[in-house]
Amino acid sequence: MKRFHVHVAVDDLNANIRFYSAVFGAEPSVRKPDYAKWMMEDPRINFAISQRGAKAGLDHLGLQVDTEEELSALRSQVATAEINRHEQPDATCCYARSDKYWITDPQGIAWETYHTLDKAEIFGADVRVETGEAGACCAPPASTKAETRKAVSKCC
Fold first, then answer.
1. Which domain holds residue 102?
2. Lowest mean pLDDT among 28-37, 95-104, 120-129
3. How far, CA to CA in Å, does 50 sit from each of 58, 113, 114?
4. What pLDDT, in 10s, does the model give residues 9-67?
């Protein structure tokens, strides 16, 4: 079964935890010094926030699945969009180990489809393509976003 995923970058983690806890009527199911996540059934959503230096606002959207078979089906489904894709098998991100598959929509918003394999003790160890610095693991490479915008501008 699919679960909708939203990740928002925030400037003040504690203020946002208070706000979203009030909105959702629940405390986060995961809380770290730079990250919080609510896994809810009504609505069925994985809502995450992080304070890791990214510009505040929507970071990315996604669909989380329960099995490798569902992830494979989603990969096939999103491949028909003919937009650049980026695979991240066995990625460590957001205090979890997951198999991920990224696309970027015509507006430049990153979408991930993923299957969580296990918990992780670190946020992630990915490196920003633009600067070579350690950065947010929750995004496809910048080249994927740029190529997607270029492809979309040609066709639409």
1. 3-155
2. 120-129
3. 11, 19, 18
4. 999 999 999 999 999 999 999 999 999 999 999 989 999 999 987 889 998 898 888 99
CA distances from 102 to 11, 105, 148 (A): 25, 10, 11
The sheet that has 44-50: what strands, in order across it? 30-32, 35-41, 44-50, 3-9, 57-65, 110-119, 96-104, 85-93
- Whether 60 contacts 101, CB under 8 Å: no
Number of domains composing the chain? 1
Question: From CA 104, how far away is CA 52, in angstroms rounded?
Answer: 21
Q: Which two tokens stand for residue 59?
A: 């970071």
CATH number at residue 124: 3.10.180.10
Looking at residue 143, the DSSP 8-state letter turns out to be: H
